[in-house]
Design a protein that fits this description.
six-stranded antiparallel β-sheet; about 30% strand; about 260 residues; Jelly Rolls; alpha+beta; elongated
Length: about 260
């Protein structure tokens, strides 16, 4: 054998085989990428689904709790149910207290103010009469709470116990020849006792020679009254009273 003879050359690979390998590799890469994208999308969908199921479970738990609470509040279920009603009711009370503690104090104050009942009041205008106890009538646009006050024969009757402010004004004519002062009195009428004087006002006599020198007396104060108490006004001489609109009036209102 001749040692100088060259080794036989390697047989070259066909061009078709190389193209096939590249196409297969590309296909594998595309498949892997698609698999990754699909996995990510499925993970997001699964996460959203779990959250939704969790919310539904939470709502169902609330519904079940309300059903249990409803059964525990019905007397017919108190003996027939196996529920621990004492524990359920206690949990419900704790929940209410927790929610109340979260409400701002300003909101509670606004709610109390909004729900507060308006103070009862009555305002009457003078009505001409020869009686010593002055008579009155409803005044235009003036309030009168019939649940708290009633009026009859010159007297206001209080319908409930409370603290009230009483006021009255009487306008009157005074003449130089009349030397006796004109007086206004507000009384509390008690059936089994003597009338108690609550307010008194005194006017002076005129210094001019006019036919009628117009003057007025105004009195007012806060009092504590009981249900059934009666208030009335009288004067020394009702013939001198001026009953023109806005001059002579009598009223009271409830203090908060």
């Amino acid at each position: 054998m001749d040692s100088g003879e060259p080794y036989p050359s390697t047989t070259p690979r066909p061009a078709g085989f190389t193209t096939t390998m590249k196409a297969f590799t590309s296909l594998i890469a595309v498949f892997v990428i698609a698999q990754l994208i699909g996995t990510v999308l499925f993970g997001l969908y699964l996460h959203m689904k779990v959250d939704k199921v969790g919310d539904e479970i939470s709502l169902r738990e609330d519904f079940v709790f309300l059903r249990r609470l409803q059964k525990c509040r019905k007397p017919q279920y108190s003996d027939a149910t196996f529920l621990d009603c004492a524990k359920i009711l206690s949990s419900f009370q704790d929940l209410l207290q927790d929610q109340k503690s979260k409400i701002p104090q300003e909101s509670l104050l606004a709610k109390r103010t909004g729900d507060k009942r308006q103070a009862a009041s009555i305002h009457l205008a003078g009505c001409k009469s020869s009686k010593r106890v002055l008579q009155w009538k409803r005044s235009p646009y003036a309030p009168m709470d019939n649940d708290t006050f009633s009026y009859q024969d010159g007297k206001i009757k209080v319908g409930k116990r409370g603290r009230y402010y009483i006021y009255s004004q009487v306008a009157f004519c005074t003449k130089p020849e009349t030397h006796a002062p004109f007086s206004l009195y507000v009384y509390l009428n008690l059936p089994s006792e003597a009338d108690q004087l609550l307010l008194k006002g005194v006017g002076t006599h005129a210094t001019s020679y006019d036919l009628c020198s117009l003057q007025s007396i105004h009195v007012g104060r806060a009092v504590e009254l009981q249900e059934g108490h009666v208030i009335f006004v009288n004067v020394t001489n009702s013939s001198r009273v001026n009953y023109d609109h806005g001059y002579t009036y009598f009223g009271m209102f409830e203090l908060s």
